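Hi support team,

I've been running sequence recovery on a batch of backbones for a student project. Most finish fine, but this one hangs at about 90% for roughly twenty minutes before it completes. I'm not sure whether the input is malformed or the queue is just slow. I've pasted the structure tokens below so you can try to reproduce it. Let me know if you need the job ID as well.

Thanks,
M.K.
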């Protein structure tokens, strides 16, 4: 039986130890902005989840990328609150946590991503390959996701830039990482630009 226990002075250290930045973010937003209060979920005596009292749940069973170099990036990012790793050319990095469209499993990867006019942008380039990166079709199917930007973990909703929106957004991202310019030339696939809108 699941018990929901609000985070308070008695258990906030347990919340931070178990869930790190997401717990801190929820507590800060509840205190400063009056957003829904965070709580811990227990199955008997076992701590199994973090949620807000309005029902918005955070994933607690995230699987990191199986690519060793991506896993190293994720580990460095989490350990340094986004100060490392450094991408060649200084392009900014973010962590994307998305849900598998078939398995329902939450997965996390490290990508170039940047804020632009109040939203965040990703490019589903896959190095100019003729197929989409694995995370993109999953976001299309399950657009609710989580984005870590530096120390902050925020809920977002994903959408694909329209043909009218894409040129300006792709140009913006190419300004951050010049490789995107050649990636589109390498493939006949229309490389999507993904817009991640923070959930208020």
């Amino acid at each position: 039986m699941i018990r929901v226990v609000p985070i308070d002075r008695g258990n906030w250290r347990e919340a931070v130890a178990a869930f790190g930045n997401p717990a801190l973010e929820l507590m800060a937003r509840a205190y400063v902005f009056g957003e829904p209060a965070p709580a811990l979920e227990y199955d008997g005596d076992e701590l199994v989840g973090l949620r807000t009292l309005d029902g918005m749940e955070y994933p607690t069973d995230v699987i990191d990328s199986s690519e060793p170099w991506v896993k190293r990036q994720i580990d460095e990012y989490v350990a340094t609150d986004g100060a490392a790793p450094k991408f060649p050319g200084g392009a900014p990095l973010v962590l994307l946590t998305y849900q598998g469209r078939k398995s329902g499993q939450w997965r996390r990867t490290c990508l170039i991503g940047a804020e632009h006019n109040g939203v965040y942008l990703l490019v589903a380039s896959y190095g100019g390959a003729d197929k989409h990166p694995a995370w993109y079709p999953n976001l299309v199917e399950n657009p609710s996701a989580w984005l870590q930007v530096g120390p902050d973990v925020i809920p977002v909703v994903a959408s694909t830039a329209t043909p009218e929106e894409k040129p300006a957004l792709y140009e913006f991202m190419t300004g951050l990482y010049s490789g995107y310019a050649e990636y589109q030339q390498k493939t006949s696939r229309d490389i999507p630009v993904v817009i991640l809108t923070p959930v208020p």
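--
Follow-up from support: It reproduced on our side and the slowdown came from queue contention, not your input. The two ends are 31 Å apart (CA to CA). No action needed from you.
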